[in-house]
């Protein structure tokens, strides 16, 4: 871990808008978890089956029809998957009432822990248990576990927050995607 310098408590309000949430969802699902691989693999496999059918169309009259159906399914289903993914992200943003004027949660970076407050609920996370911090365009994604992240939108304290995260988490748990 990087050096453990003491720093003043820093509080950031999670005013997340739809655009920041959309960018996070794309990063988390398609880049970090590489969820694009399965639809692509499906399309490639179905296209290969379609190519086999097209090569055998002289032997069987229905081979071209079957090949066309396989190719259509192989291309259409991944498109449907991506469409449903983006529709789901938009639906989640609407359900959560995301807008830049509304604070979703408050994240406090303290020397001994990370404290998160949302309404009447709160949680503390030890620095050594934090999974990852990613700096992206317009936001910092603070993964307190591999599946739970808090978005710290760009604000006056963003650079200071990034310095604190770099110091506390060390290079192995930091990614800067703004470069």
Q: What's the quick description here?
A:
By secondary structure, the protein is of the alpha+beta class. It contains 4 helices and 8 strands, in the order E-H-H-H-E-E-E-E-E-E-H-E.
Describe, in plain words, how this protein is organized in 3D:
- The chain has 179 residues and is an alpha+beta fold.
- It has four helices and eight strands, in the order E-H-H-H-E-E-E-E-E-E-H-E.
- The chain has two domains: 84 residues, PH-domain like (Roll), CATH 2.30.29.30; 69 residues.
- It has a four-stranded antiparallel beta sheet, covered by helices on one side. It has a four-stranded mixed beta sheet with strand order 7-6-5-8, sandwiched between helices.
Total DSSP E strands: 8
User: What topology, given as strand order, has the largest sheet?
Assistant: 1-2-3-4
Give the averaged pLDDT, no decimals: 92
CATH homologous superfamily classification of the largest domain: Pleckstrin-homology domain (PH domain)/Phosphotyrosine-binding domain (PTB)
The helix fraction, in percent, is: 40-55%
What is the SS-derived class? alpha+beta
Q: What distance separates the N and C termini?
A: 23 Å
Low-confidence segments, given as residue ranges, are: none
Topology-level CATH name of the largest domain: PH-domain like
CATH class descriptor name of the largest domain: Mainly Beta
Overall geometry comes to elongated
Total number of helical segments?
A: 4
If classified by CATH, what would the architecture of the largest domain be? Roll
Radius of gyration, whole Å: 22 Å
Order of helices and strands: EHHHEEEEEEHE
Strand content is 15-25%
Number of domains: 2
């Amino acid at each position: 871990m990087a050096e453990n310098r003491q720093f003043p408590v820093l509080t950031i309000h999670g005013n997340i808008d739809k655009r920041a949430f959309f960018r996070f969802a794309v990063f988390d699902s398609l880049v970090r978890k590489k969820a694009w691989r399965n639809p692509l693999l499906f399309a490639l496999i179905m296209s290969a089956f379609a190519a086999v059918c097209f090569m055998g169309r002289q032997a069987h009259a229905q081979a071209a029809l079957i090949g066309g159906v396989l190719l259509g399914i192989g291309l259409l289903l991944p498109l449907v998957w991506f469409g449903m993914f983006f529709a789901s992200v938009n639906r989640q943003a609407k359900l959560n009432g995301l807008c830049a004027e509304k604070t979703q949660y408050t994240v406090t970076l303290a020397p001994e822990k990370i404290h998160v407050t949302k309404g009447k609920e709160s949680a503390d996370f030890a620095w050594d248990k934090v999974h990852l911090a990613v700096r992206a365009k317009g936001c910092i994604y603070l993964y307190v576990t591999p599946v739970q992240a808090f978005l710290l939108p760009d604000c006056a304290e963003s650079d200071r927050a990034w310095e604190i995260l770099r110091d506390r988490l060390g290079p192995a748990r930091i990614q800067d995607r703004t470069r």
